[in-house]
């Protein structure tokens, strides 16, 4: 059961999926920063406590771990690993280094390429005809009952996270929609409205 609760129609997603999609990988491990093996590219499905480096794995013995890889600066995972624990049908797969992979999150694309007849139902990235989504995040968003493409947020990832956990999604939207009030320097504004008068020495005097 997912993190949304029994009444959430998206509780079919495992509880670790949303945290996984939000995790930043390929950063330096804060616990093993002095090691040359400190790049974080592992994730523990049991602990769900962020990206792990190879040295962290000693503390996750007998846990279910997956490895994240990179393609063109985007996070991917091998189909052979993820399909054992998650349904990845309808998500386009790619062959990279002789291995079939899927992308974790959407990759922004201004417009489909020339001649493209099929696109991701969420982010409009060009796809082969047999697929509906370009990434796991887009599948979560696109299969959500409350998803509306014409009203989707600027970040597809945010939509996919809120589909997994409605309360978490609402909190993110509140934070992102907040904008600080505009601060006006009334003294400066008043100075700009004054009529300039030329001083005897060729300078200007401002009327306050």
UniProtKB/TrEMBL annotation:
Residues 158-179 are annotated as: Disordered. InterPro entries: PLATZ (IPR006734). Residues 158-167 have a biased composition (Low complexity). It comes from the Eukaryota. PANTHER family: PLATZ TRANSCRIPTION FACTOR FAMILY PROTEIN. This is PLATZ transcription factor family protein.
